[in-house]
């Protein structure tokens, strides 16, 4: 194995960065702590490591998916250290598909103890919410990489992320936004648009069967498929475990509510869905109704632009690290975002004030009275303020809100 390590290092020293779309996720590098990149399959974790290597000197990238590493054993760690010392100059180790290393957590912790900076990435089914804490035992910082944001999408297709009041430039951004919502943000689907639908079907099937059925040893594949179809038909709507339980029972598929709640949790852990709890005091059990969103708007069938807009907002809130919920009283508001004050977001496919449904404003008014939050209407192309009774609602186009970046709270006005 020493020869293999030497070959891999020599190959890396002649490496040149491939064409890459710059990702906006920054990876922290701290002494004594590994950086773990987690997220959906095919979201670009390997290229994010490449990007880090290209920006920083003294980095060594190793892909443990390389067939030459078949048969790697814990005893080969000494050979790895020897090659690192022999070549010298490596301070940062980028370990891809690290789950293929037996006892990989011990390898990483030992490298940290020797003063190396370490970033790891790997298969979603084996390097996720459960494995990273278990293997690294608190010695890590985790960063979530999702498919392209709208800003990254614009960079990928070569459109400037700016627009003035000129109709042509604004129209170009709206056209790009429509394409983004239809195609989604998975890098390969963006860069190969003619294959986008086929790629998304492949990603979906891989997540379902590799990251859920195989990983969690789901025995009743048919029952799970029926449950999954219920979840997918509920995208952007409230999903009830109790309702799913009754429907499955009517089909002769007896599953406990706990089993169905676990199915939903597995889909979350595999980064296929985002389950949003209801706003209210205390914790919301997974068996209680949640609003369900796909992790990418491309998973929603074509043409459902309003649902795709709402899904894009949910994924962007997740990307920005917000804690968010949905509100349901007499009426429903899409999102309640924690803050001082909370932000109340309603998403609508409207381009003019008369296209805004009165029920959406009434829902914001009810939620504002109950939650004490600030209302925001995210629209297709309506911008400004709407006054309804004593309520003042800020309206911002989705493209502008998506491009708001880290200053999203202040940039929504």
TrEMBL record:
It holds the Pfam family DUF4143. Residues 210-339 form the DUF4143 domain. Residues 34-154 form the AAA domain. InterPro entries: AAA_14 (IPR041682), DUF4143 (IPR025420), P-loop_NTPase (IPR027417). It comes from the Archaea. This is Uncharacterized protein. It comes from Pyrobaculum neutrophilum (strain DSM 2338 / JCM 9278 / NBRC 100436 / V24Sta).
């Amino acid at each position: 194995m020493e020869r293999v390590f030497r070959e891999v290092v020599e190959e890396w020293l002649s490496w040149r960065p491939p064409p890459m779309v710059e990702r906006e996720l920054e990876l922290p590098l701290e002494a004594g702590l590994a950086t773990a990149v987690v997220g959906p399959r095919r979201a670009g974790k390997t290229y994010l490591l490449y990007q880090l290597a290209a920006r920083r000197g003294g980095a060594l990238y190793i892909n443990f998916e390389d067939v030459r590493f078949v048969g790697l054993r814990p005893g080969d760690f000494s050979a790895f250290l020897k090659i690192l010392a022999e070549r010298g100059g490596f301070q940062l180790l980028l370990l891809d598909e690290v789950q293929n290393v037996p006892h990989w957590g011990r390898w990483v912790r030992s490298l940290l103890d020797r003063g190396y900076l370490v970033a790891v990435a790997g298969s979603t089914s084996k390097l996720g919410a459960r494995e990273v804490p278990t293997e690294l035992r608190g010695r890590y910082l985790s960063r979530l990489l999702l498919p392209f944001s709208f800003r990254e999408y614009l960079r990928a297709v070569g459109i400037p992320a700016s627009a003035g009041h000129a109709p042509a430039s604004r129209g170009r951004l709206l056209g790009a936004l429509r394409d983004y919502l239809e195609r989604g943000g998975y890098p390969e689907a963006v860069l190969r648009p003619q294959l986008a639908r086929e790629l998304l079907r492949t990603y979906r099937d891989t997540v379902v069967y590799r990251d859920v059925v195989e990983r969690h040893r789901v025995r009743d594949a048919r029952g799970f498929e029926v449950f999954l179809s219920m979840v997918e038909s509920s995208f952007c709507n409230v999903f009830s475990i109790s309702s799913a339980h009754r429907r499955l029972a009517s089909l002769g598929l007896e599953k406990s509510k706990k089993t169905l709640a676990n199915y939903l949790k597995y889909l979350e852990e595999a980064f296929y869905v985002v389950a949003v709890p209801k706003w209210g005091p205390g914790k919301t059990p997974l068996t209680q109704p949640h609003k369900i969103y796909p992790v990418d708007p491309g998973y929603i069938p074509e043409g459902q632009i309003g649902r795709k807009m709402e899904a894009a907002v949910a994924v962007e809130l997740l990307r920005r690290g917000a804690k968010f919920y949905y509100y349901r009283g007499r009426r429903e508001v899409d999102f309640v975002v924690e803050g001082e004050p909370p932000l109340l977001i309603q998403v609508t496919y409207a381009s003019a004030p008369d296209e805004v449904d009165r029920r959406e404003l009434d829902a914001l008014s009810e939620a504002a009275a109950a939650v004490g939050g600030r209302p925001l209407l995210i629209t297709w192309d309506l911008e400004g303020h709407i006054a309804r009774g004593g309520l003042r609602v800020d309206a911002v186009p989705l493209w502008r809100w998506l491009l708001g970046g880290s200053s999203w709270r202040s940039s929504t006005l």
